[in-house]
Input
Amino acid sequence: MKQLTGTPPAESTVPTRRVDTLCPYCGVGCAVTYIADTQRNRIIHAEGRNGAANAGRLCVKGRYGHDYASHRQRLTRPLIRRDDAYPKGALSPMEERPGKPGGPVEESAVLPHFREASWDEALDLVADRLLAIRERDGGDALAGFGSAKGSNEEAYLFQKLVRAVFGTNNVDHCTRLCHASSVAALLEGLGSAAVTNVVRDVARADVALLTGCNPTDNHPVAATFIKDAAVNGTELIVVNSRRPRIADYASLYLPIQPGTDVALYNAMLHVLIRDDLLDHDFIRERTEGFGELAETVKPCTPVSAERICGVPAGDIERAARMLGGARAAMFFWGMGISQHTRGTDNARCLISLAMVTGNVGRPGTGLHPLRGQNNVQGASDAGLIPMVYPDYQAVDDAAIRKRFEELWGRPLSPRPGLTVTEIVGAARTGQIKGMYILGENPFISDPDVNKVREGLSSLEFLVVQDIFLTETAEFADVILPASSFMEKTGTYTNTDRRVQLGRQVLELPGEARQDWELICEIASRMGYPMHYDSVAEVFAEFAATTDAYASLSHAALGEWGRWYPCSDPETSEGEPIVFDDGFPRGRARLVPARFEPAEEQPDREYPLILGTGRVLEHWHTGTMTRRSRVLDTLAPEAEVELHEQDAERLGIADGQQVRVSSRRGTIVIRARVGTDVLPGTVFIPMHFKEACANLLTNPSVDPWGKIPGFKFCAVRVESAQAAA
Amino acid sequence: MTDVTLRIDGMSVTVPAGTTIWDAARDAGIDIPVLCHDPRMAPVGVCRLCAVDVGGRTLAAACVRACEEGMEVRTSTEQVQQDRRTLLDLLLSDYPDVSRRERSTGDDALLAQARKHGISNIPYPDGSRASPRGEDHSSQVITVDHQACILCDRCIRGCNELQHNDVLTRSGKGYRTRIAFDLDTPMGESTCVACGECAAVCPTGALTNRALDGIALVSEEET
Ligand code: SF4
Output
């Protein structure tokens, strides 16, 4: 006979609070309830909520990656660089040293160069130094990097500060490094850069093209819905040069040589036109420029494309026929399309494919560039872009500028500002002298970090506002301890255009302060009083400038958020599918693209092609995920993926240390030998400072989107022992 | 689609053909207990706790049986209740003394059903002592206690149907049947991507958040 005696009590009891909020990581925008230990001010458990994007599902980052917020290395006091820490330079070593674990910035090497300061001292210093540069050299000597990890409200205030107070349009953020080319192509083609339908609409597509994306790693919960669709009959065409796991669910997998996308898609357009698999009504009524497009792709036969892109001509034919025969087809793409020096051309081709087959504006059809950061869409909507104010309104349009001058009460610069990579270049030449960097880490995220190092060291004054000591903060004159996602309230716009409210879960550690308040403090101390009673009030000011958000407010967003546009949040969830009868620019413009080989082709000295990217467990420069116990334990180390044929030829064994060199630098890293990457190509994740992929990457950019070609540079791989 | 009309506990209910009895009852405000069923996943009818009287020779599992025109469903007759108590007795007969779920988040669904059905003495010997089924602590994020597993298949469906990670399955035969990762490798060495869905859908102490081992969460208001 067994007795049910009741569960014996646990060793310790923890007082908790549940907060309904969002995952801080990717653009999927999963809704989550975090359960906080209120005594120790840390999150200890997560439950998926039934959000529009996740239906209760979460991935490893959302469910277990929350502990970074209470990591002991959080910045808790303002820091000022000591006088003897000049001239400036990186303070912690870049390479992994024997016996030293890799990982983020070495605190012990960096902190002694700074002293703690009061908020008043630090903020006054920031305001005085920035003002002095503005007075002496003009506003264009200043620049700001905001972040797609911040809220819409923070993005709005930050660009307002740079424009109205610094007096320049030199304000940009990391979208430049991920989807700038997609945005350029979509604005040119449709007049709007937002996705035309939501991820989960894939359930209604017969065919979905997934190109240059690895959703199981980078948009994991979105991937689960794409796989749902595949199981229920949606045929997936997956195109990549490194086999993503979602290819297991594909009807057709096309391994493509890096940097040859235009050749493939032009050949698909060729087949669609040749075999008349077109939506003539759609082309006639909704597009312009078809004639020129048809002319351009006429010579682009599948056979000639095969020679360039390596995809068998028969498979190109089949992919084109699948698309052409589909009642509804959807197009997903990621950095494998956008991060090329011809990224805009790549995206133009995808737009053309969707347009000539009439696959936009109906259920199961649409263009969906998968957004990376949780607030890429919103940060761009709010104007963290050098050429445009909120809502993509051009800074060089006099009428628009006048409206913003009236709203903000300051004269504004008519000159479009510099982009991320241009700002770093201008810092090297001394044209940019002062910078405010909020929540970005260009020292790891930007291409050719040796150049970034020169740029950051040359700045006369740099203030970095962040939650941890980042590699970039090593170059700062002043470091301001900021709020993590878990400590703030604000709105975030996910890849689906869903505007959702993130709520404060934890208390700020130490003397750290809210990011939005710090922006206001700096503005006020620079002579431009900025005062808001609440984040909701900031949202209201932003929404009044931006049509898509005009009907929304914190109260209207409620627990679940809304898709924009949303005519009436009282009665509507907003629009999951847009452009059913017209594009913002009227007709869609079909812009033909011609294949051009990538600039830095492999040669005898650097015979392999490197592409960078991410792994499931880590996030960008690792400032958060490498401080999450679970995530860092699951993926503690960088690895270069190498095809087994190349490994054999080079005499490299799986797990061995190798040196990877490009024309710009060398890193030492562990080799992982397999068959996911194509022969002749290698892959390195970008997260690891001690094997910093961006030491190798090429800083040359796409002429339209100004995005660097992270997915293509020539490298050499050799055994670390042999080379030493 | 055609509708069917039936009676559940004397209440007339009209639902689209194909609706399960469990869904129809829920919409009518009648709670039929379940362990293996979760509305987000396809029903499998393995725990049998939702068995109801539809006038047939045997009881029918409400989570999988579709409503029929004119059906007379009774969800809590003495026989149904007795059946549930027997099922719970059997499930609990080798349940471990400590359910990690009950101890940390307090929401072990099997123990909740035991309480609801007033079960305290189990008329069988304690199976957990006779032949223990083991634990797996190899995962960074989830503790696996096979002793607390009732083979409801929720984790397997969570892994395969919701997340499509295709890692979890069943392995073994008879009493030795258990959930398994890949070809029965330890969870931490399997192809598991640590999404945590299995532990999120598990109703018992079998799959739980490792970070909560040994601590009890109490909501602030209660303290
Ligand atoms: S899919 Fe993205 S938003 Fe969702 S839990 Fe994972 S990282 Fe967070």
Notes: The first helix of chain B runs from residue 21 to 27.
